[in-house]
From TrEMBL:
Keywords: Bacterial flagellum, Secreted. Flagellin is the subunit protein which polymerizes to form the filaments of bacterial flagella. It comes from Candidatus Raymondbacteria bacterium RIFOXYD12_FULL_49_13. GO terms for cellular component: bacterial-type flagellum; extracellular region. This is Flagellin.
Length: 242
């Protein structure tokens, strides 16, 4: 017995299966809007696309980190501004107390306000926080030497040192600013206090300047991350989208 093969039918069925596969792929691409839906569509393209997506997600989180850093720095700067105002008032009181027109009793009253301001500076130093971290006690983040501490802000998508930004915030307590034994109960002490307060004002001004520079740098970092994120998304779209 001879078995005949219907070659034409087999070819037709094979062609139909191929057409169906191609049609299904086309429909899938139309429904998803993607040229690459699985590794078999384009293995190399998928790998590059996924790496770009990883970078985009990292950049998005890095922007959030930088924004959190700005919030932290603005809280610290606001408190430092208030401390500077109190130091200015302490200086006024010291200048007043150096004048011989004041009696011992009047200097004692003036010193009461002076010491009260010192206590408030220490209180503000101890209660100024971001996410339970005290910002102005000189021990923020990785706990550096006494009087100054550093924290690391991760503002990039990868683990490189270039993706990290170290912020140093010096302590603003009365002790850190060298005013622990300061008083204005006598003319001599008031003169000494003036010198110490001027040093403290220089310190707090430098701190505020540093904080402002940190904020500006972070804002530029956010702008750059925005540009990188958008451009990387556009490049990934060219690879993966229909």
């Amino acid at each position: 017995m001879r078995i005949n093969h219907n070659i034409s039918s087999m070819i037709t069925q094979g062609s139909l299966r191929q057409v169906n596969r191609e049609m299904n792929i086309s429909l899938e691409r139309l429904s998803t809007g993607l040229r690459i839906n699985r590794a078999s569509d384009d293995a190399a393209g998928l790998s590059v696309s996924e790496q770009m997506r990883t970078q985009v997600r990292g950049m998005h989180q890095a922007k959030s980190n930088a924004q959190d850093g700005i919030a932290l720095l603005q809280i610290a700067e606001g408190a430092a501004n208030e401390i500077e105002s109190m130091l200015q008032r302490m200086r006024e009181l010291a200048v007043q107390s150096t004048n011989d027109t004041l009696t011992t009793t009047e200097r004692a009253y003036t010193n009461q306000e002076y010491t009260s301001l010192m206590s408030e500076i220490d209180r503000i130093t101890n209660v100024t926080q971001y996410n339970t971290q005290t910002l102005l006690d000189g021990q923020i983040g990785s706990f550096g030497a006494a009087g100054s501490g550093s924290c690391i802000l991760h503002i990039g998508p990868n683990s490189s040192s270039n993706d990290q930004f170290t912020v140093t915030i010096n302590g603003t307590s009365i002790g850190a600013m060298g005013l622990t034994s300061s008083s204005i109960t006598t003319q001599m002490r008031a003169n000494s206090a003036l010198t110490s307060i001027d040093v403290a004002l220089g310190s707090i001004n430098r701190l505020r300047s540093d904080l402002g520079a940190y904020v500006n740098r972070l804002e530029h970092a956010i702008n750059n991350l925005d540009n990188q994120e958008h451009n990387t998304q556009a490049a990934e779209s060219l690879i993966r989208d229909v």
